[in-house]
Amino acid sequence: MTSNPIKVLLITPTERDVRRLQGVVSVPGASHVELTHVLDVGAAVRRLSDVRFDAILLDLAVAHTHPLEPLWRMHEHAPDVPIIVLTSMEDETLAVRALKAGAQDSLVKGQIDGNLLTRAIRYAIERHQLQMALHAMSLIDDLTGLYNRRGFLTLARQQLKMADRLRKRVSHIFVDLDGLKRINDTMGHRHGDQALVETAEMLKETFRDSDIIARIGGDEFVVLAMDNAAGQLEDTWSARVHENIASRNRRPNRSYALSVSMGVAYYDPDFPTALDDLLARADSLMYEEKRSKRDPEVPSPLAHAPRGD
After folding, report:
1. Could you give the CA distance from residue 204 to residue 2 in angstroms, rounded to a whole number?
2. How far is 246 from 258, CA to CA, in rounded Å?
3. Based on C-alpha coordinates, what's the Rg of the chain?
4. How many CA atoms are closer than 13 Å to the CA of 302, on its beta-carbon side?
5. CA 134 to chain centre
6. Nearest to 83, CA basis, from 46, 48, 115
7. C-alpha distance from residue 127 to each of 83, 104, 123, 227 (Å)
8. What angle do CA 32, 13, 65 make, to 5 degrees?
9. Interatomic CA distance for residues 210 and 237, integer angstroms
10. Which end of the chain is more exposed for a tag (fewer CB within 10 A), N or C?
């Protein structure tokens, strides 16, 4: 931890607890804790939209319905901020339930001193950062830094829900790196890995930050891109894919030519389709394009992909 103050958002409806905790953080040993107080979860959500906090102290007494509802709402709005719940002495069972629901720690109101509070906050931040890192590792492909299959499926389902709300079409672009086996067999796996990394870099150059790009298999990539306007986005990214590949292949002293095959399927909120079906459709179209490269008389499906799967 640095010498900068630890910014903590305190959520409690009880003025007495506010005064008590403000007194606690003013004593030596807790002088690096900076408290900001709000009365309820609604005010906390608004404050979190303006200020970055290091931790949250959440008094479960703010609940009006289910006792863990405030914790759930805070997790939803600030998943990257560790939460310590405050309970009364008789709420031991509730404290255990809160820990199982994702709170990093629980403290009993009236039994908190400066050292205990500071230690609890520091440990909560460290544990939460470790958990977030481990979670990120489980969603990220080590070689390319893109999302892996698990990460893609997790985010793609959320993207389709957003598409339904916004009534926007989503392009599912299945991308296969051509000739990876040949590169591995003739030049070695180091060059094969470099080809995968190059493909990932090319896709990141081609698509927007808001698009979901993942490596979901050995030589298989997929992109989820929400359309700005029907038909316009595809023309843009298709041209940019080819331009970015051509630019890379013009570089001197290359050991191989980068090449990919693509297939596109579309999610239309007016005609919802399961994610697995969309991936299968895009995968099938990608293989058609790959076959068309081997047989020039077979037209590329990318130029004739249906507008509404």
Report:
1. 34
2. 8
3. 26
4. 23
5. 13
6. 48
7. 11, 7, 6, 39
8. 125
9. 14
10. N
- Residue 308 tokens read as 């509404």
Q: How far apart are CA 139 and CA 214, in angstroms?
A: 10
Q: Which DSSP category does 300 fall into? A: P
C-alpha–C-alpha distance, residues 14 and 123, integer Å: 26
Chain position carrying tokens 């979670």: 135
Alpha carbon distance 270, 168 (integer Å)? 9
d(CA 254, CA 3): 49
* pLDDT per residue as tens, the chain (309 positions): 446 889 999 999 989 999 989 888 887 655 588 899 999 999 999 999 889 999 999 999 888 788 899 999 898 889 899 999 999 877 788 888 898 888 999 999 888 888 888 889 999 999 998 888 877 888 999 899 999 999 999 889 888 888 887 788 898 999 999 999 999 999 999 999 999 999 999 999 999 888 899 999 999 999 998 875 444 456 677 888 989 999 999 999 888 999 999 999 999 888 888 889 988 999 899 988 888 876 554 444 443 344 343
> Which tokens sit at 83?
């939460």
Strands 83-87 and 105-108 come out as: parallel
On whether the CB atoms of residues 86 and 40 are closer than 8 A, the answer is no
Structure-block tokens of residue 191: 């060059």
Spell out the residues 6+ positions from residue 67 whose beta carbon is closer than 8 angstroms to its own: 60, 94, 97
Kindly report whether the global pTM for this prediction surpasses the value 0.90: no
Question: With contact defined as beta carbons under 8 Å apart, do 264 and 282 qualify?
Answer: yes
Q: Are 175 and 261 in contact (CB under 8 A)?
A: yes
Query: What pLDDT, on the 0 to 100 scale, is given for residue 233?
Result: 56
Structure token pair of residue 303: 């130029």
